[in-house]
Amino acid sequence: METRSNQHTSIEPNDPYCNSLTAYSRFKTREVKIGDVALGGDKPIRVQSMTTTDTMDTAATVAQSIRMIEAGCEYVRITAPSLKEARNLENIKQELRAQGYTTPLIADIHFTPNAAELAARIVEKVRVNPGNYADKKKFQLIEYSDAQYEAEIERIAERFTPLVRICKEYGTAMRIGTNHGSLSDRIMSRYGDTPLGMVESAMEFLRICRAENYHDIVLSMKASNTQVMVQAYRLLVATMLKEGMNYPLHLGVTEAGDGEDGRTKSAVGIGTLLEDGLGDTVRVSLTEEPEAEIPVARALVERYTNRKDHAPIPALKQLPYDPYVYSRRESITVGSFGGANVPRVIADLSHMESITPAVLSAVGYNYSVPLDKWNIGDLACDAVYVGAKEVDFELPGTLRLIEDSNVWKNRPRREHVLPLFNRDEFFQEGGSVGSVCLVNTRTEDLDESLVQMLKNTANAVLVLSSDNKHRMPAMRRALCTLIGSGVNNPVVIRREFNDLDADRLLLRAATDAGALLLDGMGDGLWLSGGAQVSHRSLNSFSFGILQATRTRISRTEYISCPSCGRTLFDLQETTAMIRSRTDHLKGVKIGIMGCIVNGPGEMADADYGYVGSGPGRITLYRGQNVVRKNVVTEEAVDALIDLIREDGVWVEPVVEGIS
Ligand code: SF4
Asked: 231 FRET partner, CA 20 to 30 A, in 157, 242, 350, 520?
């Protein structure tokens, strides 16, 4: 379990980071003009994406931009690694305008002030990375005296001010986009790779803009680690509030990966912030075609259109925990729930016609008839809820069964079977409810008498759900009541969906449960879906959400960049190939990065890195250190596996049916 120190000095745990913790209210930012699509203020939350084509290939970049725009993309970002690409933005823009597309363009800049200064005269917005705009990263930890640090800031101001003045003159907006993985050596040496370092990195650049009276600024605090990302955005807003600023926020999780994992991570990070009214534009970074990002971003933001009319939630002036540092809510151990146990996964099989060994294969348990043995997978749930259904076969020893209490009471007691009480039944029993019991309640029913009853029932696990439209904050409020009342029973987060397809269900579950888990709340996760979503998917989503919040690791983690005009190999194909060979390495983090210019910095805390270093060439990393340079692509995946093997981290994959 990860606990990060923020060393945040000026922001206190009670300092606010949003308008309200209980009533949906969008944080009011200043409006920034970006071409004819303004951002912030009362404008809708915008969605955007980035091209993956070579910026010098005008036709391909224009064609891809059009596909993105037609999918609903409101700003198109294009990389400009050097002057020649910056110059070609003119051709791309002209061609798009000639075809009737007025969508604002954004130039993405790393390392090259001259490209930024040219691009700022052509496109509607430039994005700079304060970690590398004026600094080359050498991964050196230097002790700076205050005077040396000041001198560095002056050097940055000299490099950066010309761009600010050009933006001001041309009416060009700017994003100061901090990345957790590419903080400058200067920031790293003073703050470490912390959320505070990320905020300070942006603030250094922001102060220069403000000194020039330039305010068309958007800020971002991206990280691949969702805990760090959320803490950094909160800290940024808290800092802005203290200093009387309100620049709009661009939300994103970097290097989120592809498919289900990429969507889960993005929803956890972005959704958590949107729930608290933060965010003016969203970019979901997937290692897929950029147009595939747009429906995901839209699905994330569309939930807030009518959120304001939710049922009231009792106000909460301050949180009983520090929202800027991860720490898990303390709970007692009840059976395998709570205490130091990882959050448990409960699969809901109550709607199955009957429960058979075959049914359990969808939730991680495979029964081998010839061997008369259960094979337990990495994604094996911890308990199954069967309602009133009977299970007439022997279960794997580690699996718990949850039955409705009225059924449980009339069956012989078995150690592995736990009763689920509703509120009234729990009171009727007066707390005498077996060795471990679960109590199902909605936030709306969590009153003082239930709080007291829970407090006096040390073998009860609370299963908490909410009917409020502003569900996550209602759940958080209820959990805060428990913390404030000294109730330390474990709490399972329950979320039921009846009418959503798998794609939407995943995004909503990842937002609603992920936001609580990122704040250290939740000793278990119980997702239920309607007929449209399989048990296998729901089980996989649960483990994915726990992995994305870093509260339970059960899979290999891929930190793959979304690719851009710098990319040196086919990222989607390569990611799929590496995944197919390594996805059994539970807990190993593998960075797959398209270029060596930004890749090593941006893969952040990956254990191994596979980084494009030239056409047909890959450089392999162990952590942040190069171990093999310029391996030919055809041999690179084998070389990566050899490296993992050398470290003793490799295990052979288990082939189904062979034990
Ligand atoms: S790491 Fe990937 S997305 Fe980032 S600049 Fe390099 S190729 Fe582009």
From this structure: 157
- Ligand 1 atom at minimum distance from 255 CA: 3
Asked whether residue 443 carries a pLDDT value surpassing 90, the answer given is yes
Q: Compute the distance from residue 130 Cα to the ligand 1 centre, in Å.
A: 16
C-beta 556 within 6 A of ligand 1: no
Do residues 621 and 630 lie in contact, with contact meaning Cβ atoms separated by under 8 Å? no
Average pLDDT over residues 73-87: 97
User: Element (H or E) spanning 203, and its range?
Assistant: helix 195-211
Task: Verify whether ligand 1 is closer than 6 Å to residue 602 (CB atom).
Answer: yes
- For residue 255, the CA-to-ligand 1 centroid distance in Å is 9
- Domain residue spans of the chain: 46-309, 344-548, 557-646
Q: Is the CB of 181 under 6 A from ligand 1?
A: no
Cα gap 5→197, rounded to integer Å: 11
pTM for this predicted structure: 0.92
Measured in Å, residue 527 CA sits from the centre of ligand 1 at 35
Let me know if domain 344-548 sits in CATH 3.20.20.60. Answer: yes
Q: Which residues fall within 8 angstroms of residue 178, CB to CB, at 6 or more apart?
A: 129, 130, 131, 198, 199, 201, 202, 219, 220, 221, 222, 232
Of residues 464, 507, 47, 46, the one with CA closest to residue 268: 507
Asked whether 567 lines ligand 1 (CB < 6 A), one says yes
Q: What tens digit of pLDDT does each residue of 195-229 get?
A: 999 999 999 999 999 999 999 999 999 999 999 99
Domain at 46-309: CATH code: 3.20.20.20
Domains 46-309 and 344-548 belong to one CATH topology: yes
pLDDT at 631 over 70: yes
